[in-house]
Hints:
The chain has helices at residues 13-24, 65-71, 99-106, 111-121, 132-140, 142-157, 167-170, 195-202, 218-222, 234-237, 323-338, 346-349, 356-370, and strands spanning 6-9, 29-33, 44-47, 50-53, 60-62, 85-88, 91-94, 187-189, 207-210, 227-230, 247-257, 267-270, 279-282, 300-309, 318-319, 342-344. The protein is an alpha/beta fold. Strand 12 (267-270) and strand 13 (279-282) form a beta hairpin. Helix 2 (65-71) packs across helix 13 (356-370). The site of uridine-5'-diphosphate (UDP) has 13 residues, from helix 6 and helix 7.
Amino acid sequence: MKQYDYIVVGAGLFGSVFAQCAKEKGKKVLVTDKRNHIGGNVYTEKINGINVHRYGAHIFHTNDKKVMDYISRFADFNRFTNSPVANYKGEIYSLPFNMYTFNKMWGVSTPEEAAQIIAEQKKEISAEPQNLEEQAISLVGRDIYEKLIKGYTEKQWGRSCRSLPAFIIRRLPVRFTYDNNYFNALYQGIPVGGYTNMIEKLLDGIEVILGCDYLENKNEFALLADKIIFTGPIDSYFDYCEGALEYRSLKFETQELDIPNFQGNAAVNYTDSETPFTRIIEHKWFEFGKDENGNDLPTTVISREYSSEWKPGDEPYYPVNDEKNTALYQKYRALADKENGVIFGGRLGSYKYYDMDQVIAEALKLAEKEL
Ligand code: FAD
Ligand code: UDP
C-alpha cells in the first residue's frame, strides 16, 4: 500500500477539481505544482485591495448547469458581464461584433442595413473558408476584419491570419442585436473574493506541495502513489522526444496607478498592428471598482498583455492548434495512451484551447470514470 492513491501534478483548475472529487470519495491525494502558488493560470493576488488576475483576464462563463452547480459550492459569483471594447488607433468599437459595432463602423442603424453590407463584403469568399482570414471576412466582412481582427489576431498568434485555423474566430459571436455581452452563456461572473479563494476551498484539507517540479522528482513521487494525474504540458512529460509542441506565451506588465480610473472598462483590446501589446486589463472593474465592503477603491492596477512565441523556460499559455501541432500532439497522445498509471488532463495535458468550464467538465468526467 502506497501513501497516496493519487499524485495530482498541477494545482490549476483541472488538478484542483479532480483532487477535490477524489478526496470526497475518500481517496488520499497529494497535489504538487512547480509554481509557488495554487490556481495555475486562474491565480489572483490582492494588490491595494484589488484582485489582480496575474495570468490575464479570467471571466467564468458556462451553459453547463452541472458545472455551475458544482463550482458554486466553492465560490459565489458576481454579476460581471464581459464587454471588452476595441481601440483601433483611438477609434472605440464595441465587442463582440454587434449592432453597436456596425453602427460605429458604417453608420448603419438597422440589422438589415448591417447584414447587407456584410453580404456585399463577404462576396470575395466564395468557397468554404479555409483559414482565419477567410472565415472572418465571411462572418463580418473586410472592414471589420481589417480594423478589429487582423492586427489583434496576428499579434496574439504571431502568425498571419491566412495560416491560422478558422475555428479560432468562430469563438466570437456575431450578433445583429444591440448586445455587448461577449459570451453567449447562461451563467457568467467572477468569483467574489478572487479565484485564489475558490481554489483554496477546492483544495481544503488536501496536501499541496508548491515550488516542486514533478518531472525533476519523478522517482520520489513514484514511491508515493501508483496513479498520477498530469496537467502539465504533455510534450514535457515525454521530454519533448517527438519535438516540442508550439504554444503562445504571454508577458504581463503590471502597474499600480494612483488614479481611480484608467480606462473605464475591465478590458480594452488594441486591435491595430503597431501597438505592441494586445490588450490592457484594469482589474478593479471585474468587481465594479469596489472593495469587499462595497467601498470605492481609490487607486487602480492595470496590466498590459504582450504575446510571444513560447520557448523553453517560458510559461506555455495557448496551445497552437494548427495542423502541424495537432499531428504532433497525436504522436504524444499515442505515447500517453501507453503510459501506465498516468492520466493526462487539462489545457496543457490535452493540448486543447479549453475554457475554465470545459476544464471543470473534463475533470468531473474523469472523476466519474476513475473514482
Ligand atoms: P493550468 O492553469 O495551466 O494549470 C496547470 C498547472 O500545472 C500549472 O499551475 C503549472 O505550474 C503546473 N505544472 C505544469 N508542469 C508541471 C510540472 N512538471 N510539475 C509540477 N507542476 C506543473 N477561460 C475562461 O473560461 N474564461 C476566460 O476569460 C479565460 N481567459 C483566459 C485568459 C488567458 C490569458 C489564458 C491564458 C487563459 C484563459 N482562459 C479562460 C483559460 C483558462 O485559463 C484555462 O481553461 C484553465 O486555467 C486551465 O486550467 P488547467 O488546470 O488545465 O491548467
Ligand atoms: N479577436 C480579434 N479581435 C478582438 C478579440 C478577439 O480578432 O478584439 C480574435 C482573436 O483571433 C482571438 C479570437 O478572436 O484569438 C478569440 O478571442 P477570445 O477573446 O476568445 O480569445 P482568448 O479569450 O482566448 O484570449
